Amino acid sequence: MLLTSVKVGPFRSINEQQTTEIDPQVTVLVGMNEAGKTVFLRALHKAKDALDKEKFDITEDYPRKDLLTYKRRHEESPENAVTLTYVIDDAEASEINAKIGCDIKAGFRFTVSRNYKNASLIGLSIPEAPVLKNLATTVGLSEGAVAVLSKATSLREALSGLKGISLTNEADTEFVQGLETRVSGAHADWSSVCTYEAWQLLSPQIPSFLYFSDYDLLPGKLNLKDLANRLAAASKDPANAHKQIEAKHQAVIALLRMAGVELDDFSNGTSYEELKAQIESVSINLTDQILEFWKQNEDLEVEIDIRPDASDAAPFNDGPNLYLRIKNKRHRGVTTPFDQRSRGFIWFFSFLVWFDSVQQQLSVVGSTTSNNLVLLLDEPALALHALAQSDFLRYIDDLAETHQVIYTTHSPFMVNSDRLHQVRVVEDKPRQGTVISSNLSGSDSKTIFPLQAALGWNIAQNLFIAERNLLVEGISELTVLQAMSRAAEETGGVGLDPQITIVPVGGLSNVATFVSLLGGNGLAFAVLHDYSGKSDQKLDAMVQQKLLNQKQVFNFSQFKNLGADEADAVATDLEDLLDPKAYLEHFNEVYSKALAGIVLKLEDLPQADRIVQRIEKQLISSQVSVRPTPGYNHFAVAAAYVAVPPKKISKDVIQRFSKLFETINQALR
Questions:
Q1: Taking CA 480 as the corner, what is the angle to CA 476 and CA 486, rounded to the nearest 5 degrees?
Q2: Could you tell me what percent of the chain has a pLDDT over 90?
């Protein structure tokens, strides 16, 4: 059975009823601080708390702006706070059909609403016609009994009809007795006997909610005598138990429960070594579980000690204290208080303690099974490093194998960019209050910023789709190099190895950023750039820092005059490897309108090392502007060159590019 949607509101900042679809595995609530993400989780938690502690309270939960108006009608007409919609699977449908005799299918849906009086309203309807049809085929029934069953529209009507006719055989009598037992077993408030029977089968399978936040973290130390006193006071005054037992006390109780240790054990003579051994055993087991997903520092472990300290401040100076510390084996076993270091690790450890403890409690009570839980995680992994948050997503996926998970976040690293269908955007809108939607395109840009950042990171990662990558400055280089690779191969030359990806980085200044950020991914890089007439300082620094190998850094001047001395190299762009006359023809074609009849000729261009520079000088001297800013769009000319290449590419050009591709292929082999 799965939760498929929830209708929440009015509840706190959610002023109006709204329906939110729930993913079968993971639902992610993304929004700014104070948008209402936690409010949504709290509403679900109160609707069906697995531990049956949370309840709706109109003073605390009903939207304040309408509270006085609502109070007047609350007693007679309490509003629903949450409506939960569930869908059943094949096995559950088959069980119900077999036991009741109905004919429902997998995918059957029903609802459970919870109002502000904490009463439930069940939205469930089982047609009784198929049941009556099956009953009419019971062996031995008389024709009269079959006729009554055929005409009836409900089991109660059928029973009434059967009692009004003369029963002619023993089979009729036994049948009526069985039907009477069945009808009397259904609660009188239920109009349909079969619907009541189906509810009895479905209700134990309905998932309950478990809520976890940073408030449930384990403390660094706790006085056990004080904890025992608090528990005693809470048992005497259950109504005010929450004043005695805070989240930190619950967390320690959970840890002791997991270890099979009772608070009385600390005062009834149980040996120190025995108690510590039991708790340490649980600690080691949990640490091992964490390290399946915790990759930031695998040398951490939790140490637990139990001892008194008469010199400490109250209440720690009276009776035994439970101490939790984190040992870092990477630093020769140095330990620090549990609540002062590595908050991400603390979150992991505390969550596992809490989750395991809750499952134990539910197992003892028998109120639910381990997989009938929906986990509500409020800002999980908030204190983790960005890459550790990505690791934590694997842990979420692991939980989702057996439990639906709903969590809140505003971190781009806590969103799977390839699963945006799981994301629900949470916004706080004027008058409307909190609004939850799956419509990403219609959401505020600030709200969806984490999604944009997640997509940007994913694009940056997936841009390097090959193990070998050639970094170039811009899209012009990408376009021309791809075209010339094909042209070289078609004329018997050497093209770029298809296993190498050309990556435009948006300028030479960005090469260092790309390599620094992504070079640790085990990818191979070569750099091919324009030559200004002198070496680039940033590239030189990267070579010195061993981020790049000098043998993988190239510039276009190396391929302009093949065989020339490197010392004679002059400023060279990609465009200088092409036939200058053909390039100029494409320039004239692209900017024919702006040139207004002027045709640039190669022999008229001012002298300079680079063809681009010569064209720009000619435009200035002719007082011609082809765009609002100085110069021209290099990509527009490159795109035209590729779209309508010269009918014949000179041998020199093919040789230049063949040598270029051969060199790059060798460098990235």
A1: 155
A2: 45
Domain ranges of the chain: 1-126+192-207+369-446, 127-189, 215-367, 464-575+658-667, 580-648
> Which pLDDT value is given to residue 451?
62
CATH of domain 464-575+658-667: 3.40.50
pLDDT band at 457 (very low <50, low <70, confident <90, very high): low
Q: How confident is the model at residue 127 (pLDDT cuts 50, 70, 90)?
A: very high
Q: At residue 314, does pLDDT exceed 80?
A: yes
Backbone angles phi, psi at 262, to 5 degrees: -100, 150
Which residues make Cβ contacts (< 8 Å) with residue 264, sequence separation at least 6?
Answer: 228
Residue 173 has pLDDT above 60, yes or no: yes
Q: What is the DSSP string of 197-260?
A: HHHHHHGGGS-EEEEE-GGGPPPSEEEHHHHHHHHHHHHH-GGGHHHH--HHHHHHHHHHHHHT
Strands 120-123 and 109-115: antiparallel
Measured CA to CA, the distance from residue 230 to residue 243 in angstroms comes to: 9
420 and 398 Cβ atoms separated by less than 8 Å = no
For residue 500, report the phi and psi dihedrals to the nearest 5 degrees.
-100, 130
- Averaging pLDDT over each range in 233-237, 459-463, 542-546, which range is the top one? 233-237
The DSSP H or E segment spanning 343 is helix 343-365
Q: End-to-end alpha-carbon separation of the chain, Å?
A: 53
Residue 281's pLDDT band (boundaries 50, 70, 90)? confident
Angle, nearest 10°, between helix axes 651-667 and 475-490? 110
> Are the folds of 1-126+192-207+369-446 and 464-575+658-667 the same?
yes
DSSP 8-state symbol, 606: P
All residues at 6 or more sequence positions from 356 whose CB lies less than 8 Å from its CB, including other chains: 254, 258, 286
Cβ within 8 Å of residue 101, ≥6 positions away: 130, 131, 134, 135
Which residues, including other chains, have CB under 8 Å from residue 425's CB and lie 6 or more apart?
A: 30, 31, 436, 437, 438, 439, 440, 443, 447, 448
What is the spatial distance between Cα 118 and Cα 122, in angstroms, rounded to a whole number?
13
Specify which residues 373 forms β-bridges with. 208
Band of residue 341 on the pLDDT scale cut at 50, 70, 90: low
Architecture of the domain made up of 1-126+192-207+369-446: 3-Layer(aba) Sandwich (3.40)
CB 583 within 8 A of CB 575: yes
pTM for the whole thing? 0.69
Q: How far apart are CA 360 and CA 600, in angstroms?
A: 84
Residues 6+ apart with CB under 8 A from 282: 255, 258, 259
